[in-house]
Amino acid sequence: MKQFYRFINLLLLFITLCLAAVYIYFIIFTVNQGKGEGRREIEHSFYKTLLSPQWNISRASFRETLDSASAQIFVNFFQEALIENNIRHDVNIRVFNPSNEEVFNQTNNPLSFLVSRIRLSIKNRNFQKVGELEVEYSSLSRRLLAQIILLVVSLIVILIIFAATIYLINLQLKQQEKQQQATLNLIGNISHELRSPITAISLACESLRKEMPDNKLLQAIDTENRRMGLLAERVIQNLRFQQFSLEAPKKERLHIHELLTEIVQNVRITQLPSDTRLSLILNSNEDEVLGDKVLLTSVFYNLIENAIKYRDPAKPFHWIEISTLSRGITLRISIKDNGIGIPEKYIHNIFDRFFRVPTNDVHNVKGHGLGLAFVKSVIESHQGSITVRSIEGKETEFIIFLNLCPKNQKLLKQ
């Protein structure tokens, strides 16, 4: 879950940067567009003024240079052309003679940022340069400036939204981490409370066994106490699994045949109904794997107990068959029974957390739909796999595949 939230944070950050880049691109594009648009409008108005009949009549009176009076006349015609062309740029105008001396100055308009400047040559009827018109104008018209302001405001709003979203996600993550830590502390306390009496009973049995080595009642107590220890470990591991904090397996070399034999013996003594036969067929030549004994024991107990719980009451006899078979470097473990089976449409959902096969809101067998999800999680943590095949009303078979431990493979340190 923590990795998922980190992925979401990175994704939101990436989207935010992309949006910011897009907005900046549009702002730069708008500025350049306004600059080019203003230049074209001013040049159009300027040449329109040069070609106007009124100016042609006025410029007939001078030949070599512009003076202040003629410059004033030209600027008046130029401003009229700007108005006729519906120019929306504020401008400041200067006129210079051929000697680059200023003969007219009209710079009363305060211009906004991004000011551009353009110089255009004024010529007489003989196409001789008689002066220059210098126009300062804002690269942004009021319309373009409004567009940029809208873009900037919308970008700020989007950034605020994304920042708030990232903040809330991180806040939620921190709260979940606190809850998870509190849960883990509770699990640790439960683990201690469960293990303490079990350890005490185990020590007492060990002490009494020295005095009464052949006492069958003492042996039964010791066997049940060890089983209680395994059940306690299963409870703790299930709690950890529910909190998405299943620890990495503490792997050691295990002989699966020995483990299955011990489990089958305990189940026959304590849980197996009288009308049920539990058989163990060990066909594999190799059975050594690298695995966590507690976790794998929980897996096998879980599957065997499910086979016992989901018996078919309509059948007079119930059987459970556990078998092993080696295939290359893989150990195949099968747990098969002739219980009620699983409907085909639910086969792909049985390993989902909290999923239970619907039975018209009636559950004769208690559970929370976590057992098989836990089983799959443990097997996958051992780089193995688990599959199931079932015929409703006839039989169900769970098949586990684990990697065999090569003879020369060193023990992995977890």
Structural description of this entry:
This protein has 414 residues and is of the alpha+beta class. It has three domains: 2-140, 2-Layer Sandwich (Beta-Lactamase); 146-241, Helix Hairpins; 249-403, Heat Shock Protein 90 (2-Layer Sandwich), CATH 3.30.565.10. It is 51% helix and 19% strand. The chain has helices at 2-50, 53-58, 68-84, 142-211, 216-242, 256-270, 293-309, 371-381, and strands at residues 91-96, 102-106, 115-123, 129-138, 252-255, 276-282, 288-291, 318-327, 330-337, 385-391, 395-403. It has a five-stranded mixed sheet with strand order 6-8-9-11-10, with helices on one face. It has a four-stranded antiparallel sheet with strand order 2-1-4-3, with helices on one face. A hairpin with a 2-residue loop joins β8 and β9 (330-337). α1 packs antiparallel against α4 (142-211) and α5 crosses α7 (293-309). It is rod-shaped and about 135 Å long.
- Class by SSE composition: alpha+beta
What is the terminal separation in angstroms? Answer: 22 Å
Overall pLDDT confidence: 79
Specify the helix fraction band.
40-55%
Oligomer type: single chain
Fourth-tier CATH superfamily name of the largest domain: Histidine kinase-like ATPase, C-terminal domain
Number of DSSP E strands: 11
Beta-strand percent range: 15-25%
Gyration radius from CA atoms, angstroms: 44 Å
The CATH architecture name of the largest domain reads 2-Layer Sandwich
> How many helices in DSSP terms?
8
CATH fold category name of the largest domain: Heat Shock Protein 90
- Major sheet: arrangement of strands: 6-8-9-11-10
The total domain count is 3
Largest sheet: 5 strands, mixed
**Run of helices and strands:** HHHEEEEHHEHEEHEEHEE
